[in-house]
Amino acid sequence: MLIGARQPGPVIENFTYHRVPVADGVSLSTAVGGSGPAVVLLHGFPQTHLMWRHVAADLAADHTVICPDLRGYGASDKPADGYSKRRMAADVVALAAALGHERFALAGHDRGALVAFRAGLDHPAAVTHLACLDVLPTLDMWDVLRGASAAVGWHLFLMAQPPGLPERMIAADPDAFFAHFLDQWVNDPAAIDATARAAYLAASREAIPSIVADYRASAGIDIDHDTADRAAGTTLAMPVTVVQQDWGAALGYDAAALWRAWAPDLRHHTTRAGHFMAEEAPAEIVQRLRELLAR
Predict the structure, then answer these.
(1) Domain range list for the chain
(2) Among 56, 92, 115, 284, which one is least packed by beta carbons within 10 Å?
(3) Is 275 a catalytic residue?
């Protein structure tokens, strides 16, 4: 493990950066700050660990806060394969153990929430508390994207295609592609300042094949893993908090009911913030996480 590893671009102030091996040939760039019980925070798309900068600073007052770039994103390694959420969840468990934490609370946003969900199912002895921000589990996500309303998830269908075309299309104008989501999914554009926006675009521009591979896995092997767990009746054993925009009202489904099928000990909240809620409403997200950690 390399401590004080150089981090390209902006950083979370007062956090130390590490480069931690988690699998053969794969190391994760990770920011660590604070002391106390461990909380791991996983970023979403099209972002990096930097999205947690406000939340992490607050939680670090009384927790060890661990913010990695996921496999395939940011400054972490980007292998050609290995993007099932099961593999990415195993990365997170190995990362926490390497930093001295066999048990930890886990929160994820967007793609990171899918990794966190899988970690909770696969590693219940390690994950003490689980928070998922603005996603549905993979099986439910595909089920609700029907008819014209499915256009909101057009990128999911694009990146589900076989290797080649999605990568070429995105690479033709990556900044336009990734900026679309930063612009369309935010309610308060000022929440993502120019420095953070530039960092997200630069990181995404350099990670097109691995980002597409991550999404492609959610149209293939991740469905297989979730289907097997649903058939076996596997559920999340730890306290779970979900915070979402009210997409259920817009698209005609009961998000809390879908989540409760996976999480018997669930507290489900909707927010008026946009998708990038950890940046748009950090105080709200800190409150929900602290409530979860107290359960």
Answers:
(1) 2-293
(2) 284
(3) yes
268 is catalytic: no
Q: Express each pLDDT in 136-190 by its tens digit.
A: 999 999 999 888 878 889 999 999 999 999 999 999 999 999 999 999 999 999 9
Q: Which one from 58, 91, 110, 229 is the annotated catalytic residue?
A: 110
Kindly report the three-state secondary structure assignment for every residue of the chain. CEECCCCCCCCCCCCEEEEEEEECCEEEEEEEECCCCEEEEECCCCCCHHHHHHHHHHHCCCCEEEEECCCCCCCCCCCCCCCCHHHHHHHHHHHHHHCCCCCEEEEEECHHHHHHHHHHHHCCCCEEEEEEECCCCHHHHHHHCCHHHHHHHHHHHHHCCCCCHHHHHHHHCHHHHHHHHHHHCCCCHHHCCHHHHHHHHHHHHCCHHHHHHHHHHCCCHHHHHHHHHHHHCCCCCCCEEEEECCHHHHHCCCHHHHHHCCCCCEEEEECCCCCCHHHHCHHHHHHHHHHHHCC
Quick: pLDDT tens for 115-149: 999 999 999 999 999 999 999 999 999 999 888 87
- Give the predicted TM-score (pTM) of the model: 0.97
